[in-house]
Specification:
By secondary structure, the protein is an alpha/beta fold. It has a single domain, classed as 3-Layer(aba) Sandwich (Rossmann fold). The chain is built from six helices and five strands, in the order E-H-E-H-H-E-H-E-H-H-E. It has a five-stranded parallel beta sheet, sandwiched between helices. Helix 4 runs parallel beside helix 6. The protein is globular and about 50 Å long.
Length: 151
């Protein structure tokens, strides 16, 4: 079995249940060997028509706050791992997750699964896009008690 060393954990700060599951899976893998947990949160792009009405430091402030929330979530779900990083990007989630995975040379991406929405059924989910285009293994962490079905 391949031992993963650089695990990118895609964290959705708007879905803490799914994010906790992602971290749980990463911690389970960490027990098998030394790995670096790399947490990533992707913020949606700022609409250009609103940018002029925002304070000059809004973007930097929002990125800083999201990074602090990542660290807090990591601490809240257990002891801090020996090796970890927390990164926040802004953009389209699946694109930024794939770009970050390449940039940090991750050998595994762990992402959470959400209840499908009408839009995701029509357009496809971030998880499906990542699984389809990733150059490394992808683990989709699912809640065994979720109400998902193949309808």
């Amino acid at each position: 079995m391949m031992m993963y060393q650089r695990v990118l954990c895609a964290i959705d700060l708007d879905d803490l249940k799914s994010s906790r599951l992602v971290l749980q899976r990463a911690r389970e893998l960490a027990r098998l060997g030394q790995l670096t947990m790399m947490l990533l949160n992707v913020l949606r792009p700022l609409p250009l028509n609103y940018v002029e009405f925002l304070p000059a430091d809004f973007d930097a402030s929002e990125l800083r706050a999201a990074k602090e929330r990542l660290v807090h979530l990591l601490k809240d779900t257990g002891d801090l791992p020996a090796s970890y990083t927390c990164t926040v990007r802004r953009g389209t989630p699946y694109v930024e997750i794939l770009n970050e995975a390449a940039a940090v040379e991750a050998d595994l991406i762990i992402i959470g699964s959400h209840q499908p929405t009408f839009a995701s059924k029509l357009l496809g989910s971030n998880a499906a896009s990542i699984a389809r285009h990733a150059r490394v293994d992808v683990l989709i962490a699912r809640d065994p008690g979720s109400n998902c079905s193949a309808k």
